[in-house]
Amino acid sequence: MSGVILVLNGPNLNLLGQREPDIYGRTSLDDIRALSAARAKLHGLEADFRQSNEEGELVSWIQAARGSAQGIVINAAAYTHTSVAILDALLACGLPVIEVHLSNIYKREEFRHHSFVSRAAAGVICGFGAQGYELALDAMAHILKQAKSS
Ligand code: DQA
Q: Taking burial as the number of CB atoms within 10 A of a residue's CB, which of 22, 33, 68, 126 is the most buried?
């Protein structure tokens, strides 16, 4: 298989490793970037791995992915729970989307139980820490393989 998977990370994920390690673990975002690159490569894919603290930048990247990527893996972080703009961009891009969270959002505060992103996602992976990105890339490879053979 060939193609690019846009792996998007929202606000504060640049602080991974230092930020609330009991919840998010000690793995840095750079470590997750490396894990994602290796996992994508295993499937013959390329991970275009990005992080932004700004909602509008994430929206612009999702819009641009329409012409350049085969799928989107997204951890929208806090915007998961607030952003209709990110949901609308994901719905508009027409690409398969997989939602990831490091923590199990359903075990946490109630305001984290609702996700706007989920309405655009083929599936959600949460609670497995950094491994969730690898699981999401495996699932994305499977979705793309199925789409190719149908
Ligand atoms: C998160 C969960 C969100 O609720 C939180 O705002 C984050 C990270 C996660 O990966 O567990 O910033 O998306």
A: 126
Going from the Cα of 43 to the center of ligand 1, the distance in angstroms, rounded, reads 27
The span from the CA of 7 to the CA of 36, in Å, is 8
Please check whether the domain covering 4-72+86-117+131-145 is classified as CATH 1.25.10.10: no
Task: For ligand 1, say whether the CB of 124 is within 6 Å of any of its atoms.
Answer: no
| 3-state class (DSSP) for residue 28 | coil
Q: State pTM to two decimals.
A: 0.97
Which candidate in 24, 43, 79, 133 is catalytic?
Answer: 24
Closest CA to 132 of 73, 84, 92: 73
- What is the SS3 assignment for 88? helix
Q: Which two tokens stand for residue 149?
A: 């053979």
Ligand 1 test: best mutation among 28, 75, 83, 98, most atoms within 8 Å of CB? 75
Q: What is the pLDDT of residues 56-112, one digit of tens each?
A: 999 999 999 998 999 999 999 999 999 999 999 999 999 999 999 999 999 999 999
